[in-house]
Amino acid sequence: MAALLEAERVSFTYPDGTQALQHVTLSIPEGKKIAVLGPNGAGKSTLFLHFNGILRPQEGCIYFAGARINYSHKALTDLRQQVGIVFQDPDSMLFSASVRQEISFGPLNLGLSREEVGQRVEAAMAATGITGLQDKPTHFLSYGQKKRVAIASVLAMEPRLIIFDEPTAYLDPRSTRDVMALLEDISRQGKAIILSTHDVDIAYTWADYIYVLAGGQVIGAGTPAEIFSDATLLEAAGLARPWLLDVYEDLKNKGWLPATAPVPKNKDDLLGLIPYRSRSKLAI
């Protein structure tokens, strides 16, 4: 599948001498769900800021839709319509007086008609479940509500690719499930999604493909099954195995599952592998 976005040997050092990225190469296919894992300081956020031109590589190149990124004002404006970023802290994105005004801001700056802007805003609010908040001041929203407004403001731009920097950070379990369900809905619309996360369980069950960063370098890449079966890679990146794989291995070792049982992708897959009469003895 052709790449929608590519980084080719990208390096970047901050003015204080911190080398954030070292010859990073990766490829994001159209319509796929990509997770980027790594410890704090691995370079994930810096990499994301290169993807829509906020930062410019000091070495290497970024390509979008097969073309090398052009850093002229017009070209960057066009790129940021196609590549949206939802930052970890929604307060860094929200500045308008009301939810509707916040979501309208981007489409209005595209020069669209009022009718088209209204349609986009309504669709984005419906998709994120915040239609009832449209007249509420953004500073009165809960943290989870602010997250949804930030996502809606990017959806209203109708990008082809959306980047989420730690989308579940500081959310309670219910809000985390809601956000991940929303990301799944967005993916079903055919949009490519990249997210960074420290949650290996989310990365394993959600992603089509995973990149692992450490020290500003890509130290591993592969499917979730490939990444989390590589003990050496997990140790190097300071990552744990998902609980699902630990339970799966334990059940096999105890004889609850046959040795040939396929590796489950999620909890329902795992329960489906267990004989019905044995399920009542387990508490998963």
UniProtKB/TrEMBL annotation:
Nucleotide-binding in keyword set: yes
Keywords (A to Z) from UniProt: ATP-binding, Cell membrane, Hydrolase, Membrane, Nucleotide-binding, Translocase, Transport
Domain ABC transporter as annotated: residue spans: 5-240
Record-linked SUPFAM superfamilies: P-loop containing nucleoside triphosphate hydrolases (SSF52540)
PROSITE patterns to which the protein is assigned, alphabetical: ABC_TRANSPORTER_1, ABC_TRANSPORTER_2
GO MF annotations, alphabetized: ATP binding; ATP hydrolysis activity; ATPase-coupled transmembrane transporter activity
Gene Ontology CC terms, in alphabetical order: ATP-binding cassette (ABC) transporter complex
Signal peptide annotation: none
Membrane association type: Peripheral membrane protein
Any one Pfam family match given in the protein's UniProt record, by short name: ABC_tran
Highest taxon in the source lineage: Bacteria
Keyword Membrane: yes
Compartments (UniProt record): Cell membrane
Main location per the UniProt record: membrane
Function: Part of an ABC transporter complex. Responsible for energy coupling to the transport system.
Recorded family membership: Belongs to the ABC transporter superfamily.
Protein name in UniProt: ABC transporter ATP-binding protein
The species this protein was found in: Moorella mulderi DSM 14980
